[in-house]
Design brief:
This protein has 401 residues and is an alpha/beta fold. It folds into 2 domains: 1-104 and 163-237 and 332-401, FAD/NAD(P)-binding domain, CATH 3.50.50.60; 107-160 and 240-330, D-Amino Acid Oxidase, subunit A, domain 2 (D-Amino Acid Oxidase, Chain A, domain 2), CATH 3.30.9. It has helices at 26-37, 72-96, 114-129, 139-145, 167-180, 298-311, 360-373, 392-398; strands at 17-22, 42-45, 60-61, 107-111, 135-138, 155-159, 163-164, 184-186, 190-196, 199-205, 210-218, 239-249, 261-266, 269-275, 280-284, 320-330, 337-340, 346-350. Strands 1, 2, 8, 9, 10, 11, 17 and 18 form an 8-stranded mixed beta sheet that branches. Strands 5-6-4-13-14-15-12-16 form an 8-stranded mixed beta sheet, with helices on both faces. A two-stranded antiparallel ribbon has the order 3-7. α1 packs across α7 and α2 crosses α5. The radius of gyration is 21 Å and the shape is globular. The protein starts with 16 loop residues before the first strand and ends with a helix.
Length: 401
């Protein structure tokens, strides 16, 4: 249900707000947009809304090919979000008047040697046990689908249900939708959390201005645990996981270079090539535990190009137009932290790791429900922040069913 259009408010408006979202990446923006649609007076604090890790992300909506051992619980949330994507994109594009680059092109996951082929076979078995649709192809069948693949490809999985979106366009569309829904933007850094009588009460901005709010949402990605003022035991256990990504351009004479997203295991390392309709080809991504370092390194670029060349030899002919590094917010179990914390008035929407873009629709829905109705929907309950608190077991027993 969409509420009527809110009157826009000036950024000098100090609140009090029903909901104050710290962090203007895609997770913060979708939370703000859905909250405003529910009639909540909503604001976002971020020096550069629409930025964040999504500007670096490739935008694969790959619930099936992203399945990892030990993450079967997360699969349910990923699939729920993937199922929401077509309707979510249609609504967002109508609300914002912007295209998001959503493509239902499918994904091909391939193996280059016998070890990688064995690993992919195991992944296929896991997918089948999990009730997911994927089709095993021979190397020849893979090359028939994608003629640019190297002759050495040993086999692959065709997953027609794994799609893609352009995260930069997604962020821009969410920003516009938020503005049109009446969300106020404070383009400044959050200096610290305000806590009054053991309750989160808002945010102090870098310039000293105070914003009051009934409910505060921490959606600052890998920085979420570093906000001063968070009481002990409440700061989310998120860490930065660095990812370096390359962007190339496919000149008209080479088009179509690839018709769908191609993923691969190359000597045990994960690689993906995501072709956009605008001729861009995204190649990624490294996964490095380097703290808050976002340096693009020669080694990172070399590894990506070396592995991509082994997979698709023609890639070295393409112009390299951009190299970037971003920080994924990793949690101890690689799953997000969603909903209320042990500090009344404070909610989390962080820790999405490599699934932030995929989980955007379901995160917006569950956070808006928690904020407007006071109840976390069933699909998100395994991902409550309480699972990492010291008294997790006793708290879980006390939580309302």
């Amino acid at each position: 249900m969409r509420s009527s259009h809110h009157e826009g408010r000036s950024a000098g408006d100090g609140g009090p707000y029903d909901v104050l979202v710290v962090g203007g990446g895609i997770i913060g923006l979708v939370t703000a947009w859905r909250s405003a649609q529910r009639g909540l007076r909503t604001a976002v604090v971020d020096p550069d809304p629409g930025g964040g890790a999504a500007r670096v992300a490739a935008g694969m909506l790959a619930a099936v090919t992203e399945l990892h051992y030990g993450e079967e619980l997360l699969l349910g949330l990923n699939l729920a979000s993937a199922a929401r994507y077509p309707a979510f994109v249609a609504e967002l594009e109508e609300a914002s008047g912007r295209d998001t680059g959503f493509r239902t092109c499918g994904t091909l996951a391939v193996a280059l040697d016998a070890d990688d082929r064995a690993h992919l076979r195991e992944l296929h078995a896991l997918q089948r046990r999990s009730g997911l649709e994927s089709q095993w192809l021979t190397g020849r069948e893979c090359r028939r689908l994608e003629p640019m693949l190297a002759p050495g490809v040993r086999g692959g999985l065709r997953v027609d249900g794994d799609h893609q979106i352009d995260p930069r366009r997604l962020a821009a569309a969410l920003l516009t939708a938020c503005e049109r829904a009446g969300v106020v933007f404070h383009r400044a850094r959050a200096e610290r959390l305000t806590v009054v009588r053991d309750r989160a009460a808002g945010i102090v901005l870098a310039r000293g201005a105070e914003l009051a709010a009934g409910q505060t949402v921490l959606a600052a990605g890998s920085l979420s645990g570093r906000l001063p003022g968070l009481p002990d035991g409440v700061a989310p256990p998120v860490r930065p996981v660095k990812g370096q990504v390359l962007r190339l351009t496919v000149p008209a004479r080479y088009a179509p270079f690839l018709s769908r997203t191609v993923r691969a295991l190359v000597r045990g390392g994960h690689l993906y090539l995501v072709p956009r309709e605008n001729g861009e080809l995204v190649v990624g991504a490294t996964s490095e535990e380097m703290g808050w370092d976002t340096t693009v390194t020669a080694g990172g670029v070399y590894e990506l190009l070396r592995d991509a060349h082994e997979l698709v030899p023609g890639i070295t002919e393409l112009p390299l137009v951009e190299t970037r590094a971003g920080l994924r917010p990793g949690s101890p179990d690689n799953a997000p932290l969603l909903g209320p914390t042990a500090l009344p008035g404070l909610h989390l929407a962080t820790g999405h790791h490599r699934n932030g873009v995929l989980l955007t629709p379901v995160t917006g829905d569950v956070m808006a429900a928690a904020l407007a109705d006071g109840e976390l929907p069933e699909v998100a309950r395994p991902f409550t922040p309480y699972r990492f608190s010291p008294a997790a077991d006793s708290v879980r027993q006390e939580q309302p069913a």
